[in-house]
Amino acid sequence: MNRDEILAKSRAENAAEDERGRLIKLESASVSRCAFFILFCLLKIFVPLDDMGDAALNLLFFGGVFSQFTYQAIKQKSVGDGICSVISACFTLYSIFSLLSALGLP
Q: Measured between alpha carbons, how far is 54 from 49 in angstroms, rounded to an integer?
């Protein structure tokens, strides 16, 4: 094998590994999102929170969801992710205003 053939073979092998790494990152983000959602639901159901704690928890959750969907919408140019991003942005803004209200700010 000459130098060019070795380089071409190495690039092909590395491209497959890069694709595998990207797939693992996507899967881990999905698992992380599911775990975050389950924890959010458990906290909402079993932990009594006042208005401030409830608004802070909502802001944490919806802010995270908003950032993930926005990133995916930009990177993948996905309309579905864009719609979910807009919806989660509305919940994030509502959570911000709820938290400000619970803190006594206008």
A: 6
Please write the tens of the pLDDT for every residue from 41-94.
Answer: 898 889 888 888 889 999 999 998 898 888 888 888 888 888 989 999 999 999
Radius of gyration of the chain (CA): 21
Angle of helix 51-76 versus helix 3-46 axis, rounded to 10: 160
- Residue with tokens 């599911």, as numbered in its chain: 34
Quickly count: other Cβ atoms within 10 Å of residue 59's Cβ: 19
pLDDT at residue number 88: 92
What's this model's pTM, rounded to 2 decimal places?
0.68
